[in-house]
Design brief:
CATH superfamily: Succinylarginine dihydrolase
Helix content: 25-40%
Distance between the termini: 42 Å
CATH class: Alpha Beta
Number of strands: 15
Strand content: 15-25%
Strand order of the largest sheet: 2-1-15
CATH architecture: 5-stranded Propeller
Oligomer: single chain
Number of domains: 1
Largest sheet: 3 strands, mixed
């Protein structure tokens, strides 16, 4: 049965703003308080989805969250009408209002961890929503994320959904941003690669000193158990604490994998040789030929990698077996990175082509092409069982661009978040979006 990997990209929400909420994310912090353009951000993301669809890749859409999150503000003691709750928060605790307005759900690489049916104990595709408990503004996402994923992948015969792990530091889980799968073919059993920043209980693993390690070993192990993964189909690897302290808050900022290939920076991991050997051995037993492409620090330093988001790219398989790398415009603007990429694609190796996309609005808030997509490997039967309303087509692209033009603001500053009208605009837009994507009632304002 033919299988493929579908990229479900996050649709940027109407409250896209630069709140500087993500400590450890250099771009998020450095662009804090600047004026954002939600309409441009959404249209840039949609343009990438359309381009990949036109290249022949199956492309999906993942809806944004309702923001401001009034229920979260009420749970923190603000009361009255929705408008009064927003106004009180703006007056008494503006940072909490900013957090409740975050559009960070656009980076759906953090939405969940996904294991294809070829890997799992019951032959279903498994989803575990990420608790994202390292950052308050992201920790409030997973209830809606679970409902949206449930509406997209509703057939219990083919799809299994797990609740987020306990919302405590020991089980910090950031989803697919720290998870990659290697396989000979998307429909065959593969090796799932979990990358963690620290261990909650085992002091043998060193931890970063400046920025928090968001993914724990224990969280990765728990997800593997929930999905029923075989021990010989899993590899755990630790991120280099030094690169976390340099701004590599997720593994997808320093490495990306696809098929049988891992593209990574020389300083990405601890115990790299041991890790590569384990990946090669386990994939080899499944008939695969694991290959790695190491980017030397002498050619591209960690700082250049973080600023350009070279590794926060999409590594895609062409029909002829070659690979395509989708990178942000910032890679072309970085002389060292662009020189490396030109040499990479001209060498006749695995990666034959690089395509550049303008994702400035997302990049300024700390998320590139890889952050914007959740990968789901599906066979033909499973793909047919996915809610068809979320699969990108030319008519859907046209409808969504018209929807964005109708509902989104051209400019948004922190002071605008205190405007109760923004909540009404967001709810009106999302109510219409759920009809466009055929999701049903997934948002709190639709349910309560």
């Amino acid at each position: 049965m033919k299988s493929c990997e579908v990229n479900f990209d996050g649709l940027v929400g109407p409250t896209h703003n630069y709140g500087g909420l993500s400590y450890g994310n250099v771009a998020s912090q450095s662009n804090s308080q600047q004026s954002s353009n939600p309409k441009e951000a959404a249209l840039q993301g949609l343009a990438k989805m359309k381009a990949l669809m036109e290249m022949g890749f199956v492309q999906g859409v993942l809806a944004p969250q309702e923001r401001p999150d009034v229920a979260a503000l009420r749970s923190l003691g603000f009361a009255g009408t929705d408008a009064q709750v927003i106004q009180q928060a703006a007056k008494q605790a503006m940072p909490l209002l900013v957090a409740s307005c975050s559009a960070s759900s656009m980076w759906v690489a953090n939405a969940a961890t996904v294991s294809p049916s070829a890997d799992t104990f019951d032959g279903r595709v498994h989803f575990t929503a990420a608790n994202l408990n390292c950052k308050y503004h992201r920790s409030i996402e997973h209830p809606t994320t679970s409902r949206v994923l449930g509406a997209m992948f509703a057939d219990q015969k083919h799809f299994a959904h797990h609740a987020a792990l306990p919302a405590v530091a020991q089980f910090g889980d950031e989803g697919a941003a720290n998870h990659t799968r290697f396989c000979r073919d998307y429909g065959e059993a593969g090796v799932e690669f979990f990358v963690f920043g620290r261990s909650a209980f085992d002091t043998r693993y060193p931890a970063p000193q400046k920025y928090p390690a968001r993914q724990t070993l224990e969280a990765s192990q728990a997800v593997a158990r929930l999905h029923g993964l075989r021990d010989d189909g899993v590899v755990y690897a630790q991120q280099n604490p030094a690169v976390i302290d340099a701004g590599v808050f997720h593994n997808d900022v320093i490495a990306v994998g696809n098929g049988e290939v891992l593209f990574y920076h020389e300083d990405a991991f601890l115990n790299t040789d041991q890790m590569l050997g384990e990946l090669q051995g386990k994939l080899g037993k499944l008939g695969g030929n694991f290959q790695s492409i190491c980017v030397p620090r002498a050619q591209v330093g960690v700082e250049d990698a973080v600023r350009s988001y070279l590794f926060n790219s999409q590594l895609l398989s062409r029909a002829d077996g070659s690979m395509l790398l989708i990178v942000p415009e910032e890679c072309r603007a970085n002389e060292r990175v662009w020189q490396y990429l030109q040499g990479l694609t001209s060498s006749g190796g695995l990666i034959r082509e690089v395509k550049v996309f303008d994702l400035k609005q997302s990049m300024q808030n700390g998320g590139g092409p890889a952050c914007l997509r959740l990968r789901v490997a599906l066979n033909e039967t499973e793909l047919a069982a996915v809610n068809p309303g979320v699969i990108m087509t030319a008519p859907l692209y046209d409808t969504l661009t018209q929807w964005v033009d109708k509902h989104y603001r051209d400019s948004l500053r922190e002071t605008d978040l205190a405007d109760p009208q923004l909540l009404l605009e967001c709810r009106t837009a999302l109510d219409e979006l759920t009809q466009i994507l055929k999701l049903g009632s997934v948002y709190p304002f639709q349910i309560n």
